Amino acid sequence: VFDLVVMPDTLRVACCQTAPDVEDPAASAAGARAALRDAVEAGAQIVLLPELAHSGYIFRSAEEARAVAVPADGELLAGWAQEAARGDAVVIGGFCELAEDGRVFNSAAIVDGEGVVAVYRKLHLWNDEASWFTPGEEPAPVVDTRHGRIGLGVCYDIEFPELTRGLALAGAELIALPTNWPREQVSPAGEPTPHLLARATAYLSHVFVAVCDRGGEERGGGFQGASVIAAPDGAMLAAAEPGAGVQTLVADCHLDAARDKRRGPRNDALGDRRPEHYVTT
Amino acid sequence: VFDLVVMPDTLRVACCQTAPDVEDPAASAAGARAALRDAVEAGAQIVLLPELAHSGYIFRSAEEARAVAVPADGELLAGWAQEAARGDAVVIGGFCELAEDGRVFNSAAIVDGEGVVAVYRKLHLWNDEASWFTPGEEPAPVVDTRHGRIGLGVCYDIEFPELTRGLALAGAELIALPTNWPREQVSPAGEPTPHLLARATAYLSHVFVAVCDRGGEERGGGFQGASVIAAPDGAMLAAAEPGAGVQTLVADCHLDAARDKRRGPRNDALGDRRPEHYVTT
Known about the structure:
The structure is a homodimer.
Chain A: E1 11-17, H1 25-41, E2 46-48, H2 62-68, H3 75-85, E3 90-98, E4 104-112, E5 115-121, H4 129-132, E6 142-145, E7 148-152, H5 161-169, E8 174-178, H6 193-205, E9 208-212, E10 217-218, E11 221-222, E12 228-230, E13 236-239, E14 247-253, E15 262-263, E16 267-268
Parallel strand pairs in A: 1-2, 2-3, 7-8, 8-9
Antiparallel strand pairs in A: 1-14, 3-4, 4-5, 6-7, 9-12, 10-11, 12-13, 15-16
Helix pairs in contact in A: 1-3
């Protein structure tokens, strides 16, 4: 008779930093799917794609965005599910969503081999996005997937600590954020903004944070290519070299570590909160 | 007839990174006061001192903390006010507070040349502090001083984005945090934790953040000496070299810049919030 010691699972997380092109949606979608397939074949269990991975970002009009928007129950996410099924993976990616009522959202989905698990519509729209997308109307979700408890946001959402803290409070072990970070955004102290914010967010709530950014250029606009996977201690497990463009980051993450919020012998990152004393409005 | 163009004020902020010694409170208090005097003489208008600047940090018992605790209306803060008066400065520093009812708090005060402007009792106690301090019972304050609108926290408080965001929502242009950051705390990715958190906090709420840490050793415990002054864009205006010990950081801060929360032509760091969709408990 002996005790069986089960080691906690380590999960392989991949960020597929592709380079969509709004001028060529077919190639953008194909590039995302190919990168996803490669990552699953290489053993990744959680695979991220960028924001608006199949459509590109710099639209010129609401009509143009609407023309490439797809329903959550359509072929795009069904294709991601097919790739997920090859390796029992979970896929998180951004897409231009056509809702049943005809509205268009900047959305992200969590998909597994059986299909769509969750859809989130970006709450905080950046710049001209407000000209073609409807802002989301539901909180950012935390979902129990076959590979851990995943919280979901999109790009600019990471600049709202209320949102990311809320995902941690709802039990997220990994906060996943598809992004399209514009190159002209100032990088504080030489560090890409997504790297700074992913590290601080991970540290503050003792969670993993995966940002899947994009490379490439569109219509004169460039992107930072600043994907990053941060650990609960704020360290970067993997980070794209700024400007390096298309690449896939991989990190093996012990997601269970994010459940333990202790800080030293007497403190707890979430348990020490004093909500009755916070100003929230 | 002409328009008078008034340039917004630039304020000189100083962090006096002293080295208190819990074994010698008299020397600790004198060291803090001397550093404060030097900073005011050098033209600083906002001067920070560390957490528990006059007493040291590593107590052995509640009795020991109580023995050095002082009332907010006592000689200690009156002395800081005298130094402030020499240069019309505002002083922010941590002290071991003896309350009227006999309880002992880990407090910080804002003092100007006329006396005590505000006292804050640390809400989030770190490690053994809970054995000698009573946790605060009031929100962290934002105070209109003669040199800008200052929000106040102490050390571990910076790890609660609810608190720092709340200070920004209440209009803080500068968030001031006296700290005693233990050396053994892990530094994410090689960067001192206070530097990471000050930069991210400043960027997220578009405020200035000044952390006044301490150097020196006490009873076998060391401190990071990781003072930092961060700008609203997340850049470090001044930062102590880790391990360098006693020094005073200075940065000229255009505090008015923190009032403008715009991010690009269509976004606003606070105005874009969607409070009805955040999970807060």
